[in-house]
Design a protein that fits this description.
Immunoglobulin-like, 44% strand, mainly beta, 1 helix, 136 residues, four-stranded antiparallel β-sheet
Length: 136
């Protein structure tokens, strides 16, 4: 009898605990996206460099970080004029975040543009944009 009672109690405990301890359904990760909204000059303090402000909107990265990769290219030939540089974002605090880093770019002697690409925390390309005017 004691064995039967213990077995019944064990089954009852399993049923109660099993329901309470069932793992919750995993929440799907929010869709991660980005948009390179603007690439604008801030002027030159030194003729050798140009400061450029980039406005990027990241969505779905709350608690995580993204990154930007950028390079110069010749406005006439569209050939790259620099190696690609990478800038990591801070950990983003909101579901949708406008990030506006300032880049210091060496000023070449020919008309040029800047191509900026946003990447997610997994290294996946999210968006790309470029200056819509030529720097001189």
């Amino acid at each position: 009898m004691a064995c039967g009672l213990a077995s019944a109690l064990a089954v009852a405990a399993f049923v109660l605990v099993g329901r309470a301890a069932a793992p919750p359904h995993p929440r799907p990760e929010p869709r991660v996206s980005a948009r390179v909204a603007a690439v604008v000059p801030l002027g030159t303090g030194d003729p050798a460099v140009t400061r450029v402000r980039v406005k990027v909107t990241f969505t779905g990265l709350k608690g995580r970080a993204g990154s930007l990769r950028w390079h110069l290219y010749n406005d006439v030939t569209e050939l790259p004029m620099s190696e690609e540089s990478t800038l990591g974002s801070p950990v983003l605090a909101w579901r949708t975040t406008d990030w506006k880093p300032t880049l210091t770019v060496p000023t070449p002697p020919v008309p040029w543009q800047l191509r900026v690409t946003a990447y997610g925390p997994d290294g996946r390309k999210l968006a790309s944009g470029h200056s819509d005017f030529a720097f001189r």
